[in-house]
Amino acid sequence: MSYMYQLKDPRGHLRRIVLDYLKKMRVIGRAPNRSIRFTDAAQGTGPDGAGWLLQDPRVQNVQLRYLLMEDGDVWHEAIGAAGTEPTAADKLWLGQPTDDLASLLPKSLLDAQMGGTGFMIDEESASDGPLPVGDRREGQKPFQGLDRRRRP
Fold it and tell me: Under a CB-based contact definition with an 8 Å cutoff, are residues 131 and 119 in contact?
């Protein structure tokens, strides 16, 4: 018999680990490093908000980037080798923690505590502008709970 552990509230667990990470980063004096713009928002004069942009240095040939929002949401981008433009499937809001993210956050925190960058990407230049991210509302559905019905 194989047992697979399933989180009871995956989005809630994601938010808990991200908010805990952000709280610890603020304690050591770090601040958000990237401004963002929601792609569905009307074009205004400034960015729509700020986030914490991390890049996973452990992965070769692909840039795994995570944008952590102050409310615990996480935008994920996977940019291929040679700077190829990511597809829509490579850019998404996470609905639950991934193994890569769960292992990256403690390593990032340790690196920041030791005086490193914490794997944070440098603040954008004026020419880059805010990082475009998708609409968070389209992927958010209320958690329905585990299906406990017996399957035949």
Answer: no
